[in-house]
Amino acid sequence: MAHSFASKTFTALSDLHPNMANLKIIGIVIGKTDVKGFPDRKNIGSERYTFSFTIRDSPTHFVNATSWGSEGYIRSLSDSFRVGECVIIENPLIQRKELEREEKFSPATPGNCKLLLSENHSMVKVCSGYQVDNKLLALIYLPVKESRDFYSLGDIVANGCSLDGRIINVLAAVRSVGEPKYFTTSDRRKGQRCEVKLYDETESSFAMICWDNESILVAQSWVPRDTVIFASDVRISFDKFRNCMTATVISKTIITTNPDTPEANILLNFIRENKETNPLDDEIDSYLKESINFEQLKVKASKNEGKADPFYGILYAFISTLNIDDDSTTVVRHRCSGCGYVVKEASSTCTACNKDSFEFKSVFLSFHLLIDLTDHTGTLHACSLTGSVAEETLGCTGSADCIFTQTGCLWISLNRTAICIIICFLQHAVENSSGMARKGAEPYRMRPPRPWEERSSERRPLILIAHLGLSQCFLTLVCSPVSLWN
């Protein structure tokens, strides 16, 4: 068999020692970093490229390998294999690792050696699955840390800021995997980001952030509510932006997908038994964590001015200004029932979607109110209360019969001005939804979505959004096409 052949032909990782030569090593790739470029000190103006990976040939032995060379060679080598594939390394240089320096940025390994691959002398070959013994392939399901050496998500949340900056192990199930987001930094470097939501028996939603392509590729293979991961050496930090604890995949991190351990099997049984639970409940719960006041809001807005990143929170406030005597034309707007665009009252027809004169779309009335919101720290002026959120707040619709009793309708709302508003303070699109509201808060119950809401690309629970400009804040509705009402 391949494994017995390997034992006679290949050098075991447990037998490595510095200055060994003419070796041939086989192992399964359990971790891998992105390609990076650095200025070449010998050739000013040029760059050297590198990437690292970790291979394993037994339950107790694994080693880091690093390759340096030209951009073309390094990128080609990196693209030739992925995490979970078996490789044969020929003629690597065996070096003694500098423990403190190496393991600060690389996965911790049990031995005292590392592999250095040369562009001119070393070679890496990918093995096909049928060439490798199943015992070697099964190593991908064994965590590199002791199976009981992990924090539950509830423990992380409970410890809070005391774990800020700590590197720990996490065992959790995958609740959702976000789409990768690509960006360009101020120094014109390309970057990417992917947010994975985790959960377990103790916590319904916990964010883990991936910043490198390799971990994002692995994450894209995970099946939500059917995958368990053991993430060794992730960095835990307190996200001031969202006021909650998060995990970040770093260069030291090795993630084991569906680990073959008793603890992982218990968690897997838990998620399968609770698979029928409405995932929307967890999504709503993710908003219900912490509150924010106006003073904190304004500080965040000033710091984030000009940035596209959103931030979230729940605001406890009351309506301090509501003009009940305003002209009805400024309180109610005509909207097309087909596309939702504002229609000029004079024409009463939508120019955006009424292409066929024989099939005109109907027009309906929708509230558009300017209000001030106040809490114990200050006031947010000129917030726009619109659409179905206004209808829920006022307790009536923007229909014609309501317009005639407009003042009475608005007075009704003033009798219950103490409100709890889940809001997302936004400079750009709704993104990275993470829990910020207080547990136990009652979510809004909405009427069925309008036609334009049904076609919306947003698939999120009800939130209120505040677009923060220099002089005013607009408060409006984003409603998920998924039903939020009973």
Task: Give a short overview.
The chain is of the alpha+beta class and about 475 residues long. It folds into 3 domains: about 1-140, Beta Barrel (OB fold (Dihydrolipoamide Acetyltransferase, E2P)); about 155-275, OB fold (Dihydrolipoamide Acetyltransferase, E2P) (Beta Barrel), CATH 2.40.50; about 295-480, OB fold (Dihydrolipoamide Acetyltransferase, E2P) (Beta Barrel).
Mean pLDDT score, rounded? 75
Tell me the span between the first and last alpha carbons: 61 Å
Instruction: Supply the CATH class of the largest domain.
Output: Mainly Beta
Low-confidence stretches: 1-6, 403-486
Helix coverage percent of residues? 10-25%
The second-level CATH architecture of the largest domain is Beta Barrel
Question: What is the tally of beta strands?
Answer: 23
Q: Could you describe the largest sheet, including whether it forms a barrel? A: 8 strands, mixed
- What is the 3D shape? elongated
- Proportion of strand residues: 25-35%
The SS-based structural class is alpha+beta
Rg (CA only): 28 Å
Could you say what the CATH topology of the largest domain is called? OB fold (Dihydrolipoamide Acetyltransferase, E2P)
